[in-house]
């Protein structure tokens, strides 16, 4: 993370250690040690011993000074240099996150303006009251492992058995890594999903990276995907309608593509794809019965991949992120036979679900399904 007034690539501003010390709202609940640290064990005010924690260990934050951060690990405490932790990267507040989300939405609105001119706005006699966000809306930066588990639900919790998303871990760089088991969302077939239930119109955005398990190239499976997906709540029996947008392979191993898919039971899936990259921002927006799939590659602008009409989907939906892959591999993928199958890792830098404002709604309403 770095200071960036445009909030590029989903990064929040970094504060100085002096600013963090003066504003307790910026203090994170935990920090990651970058250097080994010696903590003292005390009882009744007397030191009874010490422990040494290795670099990479998460510890609790009790106070922050201009140069030191006071930490606790169980009953052991210490004051360590700010530079020996990731305090500054973790220090965020609601104002910074709000600015970040406003910047992301502004980029999408600016890109939509290049696709179709906005209608002339109708004058409003008096200001409308501030809307109350429906339940399910969230700004997830994957900075807190405990909060992440509390914020999201898995389809496996709905009685679908073992979670096909496999291993999920919040990494030290603030990204969520997903190493899925075999399984796909493909027409009537279903895989895993981490979701929130959202009511009404919304826009979900994320920054996703899709690579093989070595992290050096595209997945070797014939079909692999990492990105966003929306579906009907409570549908534990396939088939069920869904819309997805993300990155991966679509029938061509070792070749990355940007993909979007729509499925309604009784009909073949409608899939749109184009050459892609390993990392991009993706989005799904709902406006009434229409669903918009969007993509923004690094240093690019938001573009619409597809627009789908889904009058079958109810007002409340499960909205979230997923990663999945088939077990089949192409003949050119012998290099991967010694690796895990599925040969896929998906990393999510953030996942935000936000309401759609009136201006964005007007711009989306000018688009038609294709």
Structure description:
The chain is mostly beta strands and 370 residues long. The chain has two domains: 8-90, SH3 type barrels (Roll), CATH 2.30.30; 97-119 and 134-365, Jelly Rolls, CATH 2.60.120.200. It is 13% helix and 38% strand. It is built from five helices and 21 strands. Strands 7, 9, 10, 12, 17, 18, 19 and 21 form an eight-stranded antiparallel β-sheet that branches. The longest helix has 22 residues, at 94-115. It starts with 16 loop residues before the first helix and ends in a 5-residue tail after the last helix. Residues 1-12 and 116-133 have low confidence and may be disordered.
The third-level CATH topology of the largest domain is: Jelly Rolls
Tell me about the biggest sheet? 8 strands, antiparallel
Order of helices and strands: HEEEEEEHHEHEEEEEEEEEEEEEEH
Number of strands: 21
Distance between the termini: 38 Å
Shape: globular
Structural class of the helices, strands and pairings?
A: mainly beta
Number of domains: 2
- Radius of gyration (Å): 22 Å
> Into which percent range does the helicity of residues fall?
10-25%
Low-confidence stretches: 1-12, 116-133
> Proportion of β residues?
35-45%
What is the mean pLDDT? 78
Q: Which CATH class of the largest domain is shown?
A: Mainly Beta
**CATH-derived architecture of the largest domain:** Sandwich
Number of helices: 5
Question: Which helices and strands, and how do they pair?
Answer:
Blueprint: H1 17-22, E1 30-32, E2 37-43, E3 46-53, E4 58-64, E5 68-73, E6 76-81, H2 87-90, H3 94-115, E7 138-140, H4 145-151, E8 153-154, E9 167-170, E10 176-179, E11 194-199, E12 202-211, E13 223-231, E14 242-250, E15 257-263, E16 270-275, E17 279-287, E18 290-296, E19 303-309, E20 316-325, E21 345-354, H5 358-365
Antiparallel strand pairs: 1-4, 2-3, 2-6, 4-5, 5-6, 7-21, 8-11, 9-10, 10-21, 11-20, 12-17, 12-21, 13-14, 13-20, 14-15, 15-16, 17-18, 18-19
Helix pairs in contact: 3-5
